[in-house]
Amino acid sequence: MIPFRVQFRPGLPLYEQVVYAAMKAMLSGRMRPGDAFPSVRALSRELKINPNTAHKVITQLITAGLLESRPGTGTVVAALPPSSSAQRTELLGAQIEQIVVDAKLLGISLDDVQASISQHWKKLGGDSDRGGRSGR
Residue 45: is it exposed, middle or buried by C-beta count within 10 angstroms (0-12/13-18/19+)? Predict the structure, then answer.
């Protein structure tokens, strides 16, 4: 079983979408240092992607220092320095940009976008002062 979810979207390279989902799981704490990362074969089978794409994902995550290969054990999540709020926010950059573009195209004001985000945040039980991070 893959320890993160990927919702494939057209127009973006598959490997980038998988890398993004894995990074999000690591930075959010859902995947912790030492946790096993799926093999190329498992990643390709579970996500129904080409093994070359799965290999590219793992290689990119190793190069970024997020995974490490351990002989006899396999690939595991590397010990990561604590992530900053800016690093976690950066992961959402493309999604935030798309919201801004869509809002501008629809003629929605910044105040209305912020109010809508605030409303959804509260609906999900978000803590506006601490970024809503739980379990940490």
Answer: middle
